[in-house]
Amino acid sequence: MAQVSTVTYQAGAVIGHDGAMRFLFVGDSMTVGKAGDFTWRYRMWQHLEATVGDGGYAITGPRAGLYDTGADAPLSHAYGDPAFPAPARRHLAGWGEGWLHMAPVIADTVMATRADILLVSLGLIDLGFYTDSEQTAGNARAFVTAARSANPHVKMVLLPVIPNIRAESDAPFAAECDRFNVLLAKVVADLDDPRSPLLLASHPAGYDLRTDTYDGTHPGPSGEHKLAGAFADAMHQAWEVGGPYAGVPAFA
After folding, report:
1. Would you say 87 and 58 are in contact if contact means Cβ atoms under 8 Å apart?
2. With 60 as the cut, is the pLDDT of residue 87 above it?
3. Antiparallel, parallel or unpaired: β 66-68 and 73-76
4. Residues 6 or more apart from 252 whose CB is under 8 A from it?
5. Measured between alpha carbons, how far is 52 from 47 in angstroms, rounded to an integer?
6. What was the pLDDT predicted at 248?
7. In terms of Cα–Cα distance, which of 178, 168, 122 is closest to 147?
8. I need a surface site. Which of 65, 197, 210, 217 has the fewest CB within 10 A?
9. Region class of 39: left (phi > 0), else alpha (psi between -120 and 50), else beta
10. So what's the pLDDT on residue 129?
11. What is the separation of C-alpha 171 from the centre of its chain, rounded to a whole number of angstroms?
12. Strand pairing partners for 155?
């Protein structure tokens, strides 16, 4: 079974400037990344720097590390770009974690970090190890409800389960992924609220397991850009947050 980390709050996790949009990344191994990765969180930070600018946003969360495969724990800080600023590394993501694990902790995390916008990529690990599509959708509903209990105006962008190598060879698993994505769309339709809007991001356009991942599941550099782009374009189109995702920023 995949390793599961636990939530620990770090000093400075609560952002102090009230004028900024506070983004919280929530995800599994594709979001936390492993030692040496850039991560799609890094690509999103670049995008926010280019389109929102300093002072207009903050990235928040109780964690900052990458997964260390040797230690089997999220202990690494060896990001692909060492200049990735420490405050922008914050997140709530864990290797082996899913909706099942995040639903019980999201209210406390939103409360502690004062997050305004949640960018959520979960589901693959749930369906692969813990729950079926119906149960996973139930945990997604519980997550939304819990996040709103901490911030009634929180915004959320939810990414469906994207293509993965197991689904190519395991037909029942592929069917569960497809079924969950249908149910996740229903969660968004049922729970969307003008006071706390929900968005269902599109599958990353042209996502190719052979070129956009390094192992059929976890994104490489091009996959990181496509994942960040899926979230960025959803926010821009629906809420006019930032701008269209432009790929590799000029300063990358």
Report:
1. yes
2. yes
3. antiparallel
4. 46
5. 8
6. 53
7. 122
8. 210
9. left
10. 97
11. 26
12. 117
Contact (CB, 8 A) for 97 and 28: yes
Query: 230: Cβ–Cβ under 8 A, 6 or more apart, which residues?
Result: 159, 201, 202, 203, 204, 205
Distance CA(54)–CA(77), nearest Å, equals 23
Identity of residue 139: N
Return d(Cα 248, Cα 29) in angstroms, integer. 22
pTM over 0.85: yes
Structure token pair of residue 159: 């990414």
Q: pLDDT digit string (tens) for 191-236?
A: 999 999 999 999 998 999 999 999 999 999 999 999 999 999 999 9
Tell me the residue type at 108: D
